[in-house]
Amino acid sequence: MNMEKISGHSYVIRGGTNTGVYLFKDKSALLIDPGLTNSRGNRIIRYCEDEGIRPRHIVFTHEHYDHHGAAKVIMNHFTGAVSYSSAKAKLIIENPEIFSGYIYGGKSNSFLEESFSQKGADIRVDNVLESGTVKLGDKKFFMHEISGHSPGQMGIMTEDKVLYIGDAVFNISILEKYSIPFLHDIGAQLDSLQRLRELDFEYMVMGHEKPVLERDEAEETLKRNTQAINEYIDQAREFLTGPRTREQLIADIIEYNGIEAGYKQYYFTSSTVASIVSYLADHGEIDYELEAGMLYYYKK
């Protein structure tokens, strides 16, 4: 494990989930998304001890367990470290059953929950962040609401113009691998992608795979994310030229795109498809009918 410099005092630690680091002059640190597992947390602890770094602030960009599961061991080791997230992310981080419940659409079950590694994580969030400027230590950071992938996602930009975005944008390689991104709110995601284009950053730090994109590469990635979402919206429009239940629409999209869906991936896809249906409904493009106990959607 090592800490790679991006610009100024802004760094990244690569991993299954990339961890952002801002290093203050006194060698205290802000960590952004420490990762999933206790082993990841312990590796960060050992690295910080070896380098004389003391984490004092930990920011969670959003509520998904792969971004905050490692925080507990770090906070237990570095006593006095303070954690931060948005209000919506705090609610779900501290009550993880909400996440699997809204993915499933009711009380979750063992088929789904065995796919998650968050059981008993017991992570606390000490402070709630809102959009705008926040002072941590002796430095200012700039918080940006970028929901869509999750309800509570925020980006954080340092004075070095390094923007850490969690999973607000997917690497092109991830779009090619998984085809359909996991999204909670399609409309909010499209708005967030546009908002990100308008921000004055020089580097964008991704949550997974290739961590750091320079401005030009980030612009292309933002464009590809928008295209991918619009392609799926257009697919739904085509499938809904005739009445389809939500289950049928999910099957259409999985089969048409050759998506390999286990139990968890099925419900992630289901969540995205539900968001597409809501997007089309909110834009007045579809209607519904209930027949023989089945709820059908169709294009107007």
Structure characterization notes:
- Residues 18-208 form the Metallo-beta-lactamase domain.
- Keywords: Hydrolase.
- One of its GO terms (molecular function) is hydrolase activity.
- This is Putative zinc metallohydrolase, glyoxalase II family.
- It comes from Peptoclostridium acidaminophilum DSM 3953.
- This protein has helices at 38-51, 65-68, 71-77, 87-94, 97-104, 110-113, 172-178, 186-198, 215-239, 246-257, 263-282, and strands at residues 4-7, 10-13, 19-23, 28-32, 54-59, 82-85, 127-128, 132-136, 139-145, 154-157, 162-164, 203-205, 212-214, 286-291, 294-299.
- The chain has 300 residues and is α/β, with parallel strands linked by helices.
- The chain has 2 domains: 4-230, Metallo-beta-lactamase, Chain A, CATH 3.60.15; 239-299, Arc Repressor Mutant, subunit A (Orthogonal Bundle).
- The strands form 3 sheets. Strands 1-2-3-4-5-6-7 form a 7-stranded mixed sheet. A 6-stranded mixed sheet has the order 8-9-10-11-12-13.
- A hairpin with a 6-residue loop joins strand 12 (203-205) and strand 13 (212-214).
- Helix 1 (38-51) packs parallel to helix 3 and helix 9 (215-239) packs across helix 11.
- The mean pLDDT is 94.
